[in-house]
Amino acid sequence: MSDNPAIRVSDVSMMFHMHKEKIDNLKEYVIRLARRKVGYTEFWALRDISFTVQPGERLGVLGFNGAGKSTLLKVIAGVMKPTQGTVEIHGVVAPLLELGAGFDMNYSGRENIFLYGATMGYSRKYIQERYEEILEFSELKDFIDAPVKNYSSGMRARLGFSIATAVEPEVLIVDEVLSVGDAKFRNKSEAKIQSMFDKGVTVLFVSHNTAQVRSLCNTAILLDKGRIVAQGGADEVCDVYDAMVRK
């Protein structure tokens, strides 16, 4: 294995506070906090996660709902900071997670291209250079100056996908199967992702579909209740997951 992996995850744990009682408004929360009456339990979404991904490797991430898959990808993408542990990534990252979730609904599509690009670490100059490419790929030219709050969820996802994939990534992070827009646009987006695969990018791919993981990935990890319970070749780990599903 290389001493310089594309991704190194070391002893990562992620804890959330789960409030014991329903608090309906901020004022009530502040009062309870001041009186030390805010009760919560600790929920560890991830526990002691460690693995490396080599350049060009395609790692599948499997697990049932609530296993911690999406949390892990958000930590790796830098959306969340882990409670414990460290993540190192070498190379340009394209995270395809919750496309369009970072949009400001009152801004136009044009303004959100620059805003969303900035949240992903792209410079304004870079986005300006790729603006026409983003606009053409999204197929939203007639709506680009309308507020994003007037877009359908599919239109927002299309714009988010077009911005996220405007970069030439070295690391691609994909959460679940992408269902972006109508059938025509889905085919185009899948072709875009496949072209990235063909260029040898490093991939983290979450899916419940073991057939997809077997065909797209060469290695895999299996999460259960926030811990890695299987790790190795994609076929080997998929066999473990399929056995768990049958149970």
List keywords for this structure.
247 residues, six-stranded mixed β-sheet
Descriptive report:
This protein has 247 residues and is an alpha/beta fold. It is built from 8 helices and 9 strands. The chain has helices at 26-34, 69-77, 109-119, 124-138, 153-164, 183-198, 210-216, 234-246; strands spanning 7-19, 40-53, 58-62, 84-89, 93-96, 171-175, 202-206, 219-224, 227-233. Strands 5-6-7-3-8-9 form a 6-stranded mixed sheet, with helices on both faces. Helix 6 (183-198) links the parallel strand 6 and strand 7. 36% of the residues are buried. The mean pLDDT is 86.
Rg result: 20 Å
State the order of secondary-structure elements, H for helix, E for strand.
EHEEHEEHHHEHEHEEH
Secondary structural class:
alpha/beta
Q: In DSSP terms, counting alpha (H) and pi (I) runs of 4 or more, how many helices?
A: 8
Shape category: globular
Oligomer type? single chain
Task: Provide the helix percentage.
Answer: 25-40%
What is the number of E strands? 9
Average pLDDT metric: 86
Main beta sheet strand tally, sense and closure: 6 strands, mixed
End-to-end separation = 35 Å
Biggest sheet strand line-up: 5-6-7-3-8-9
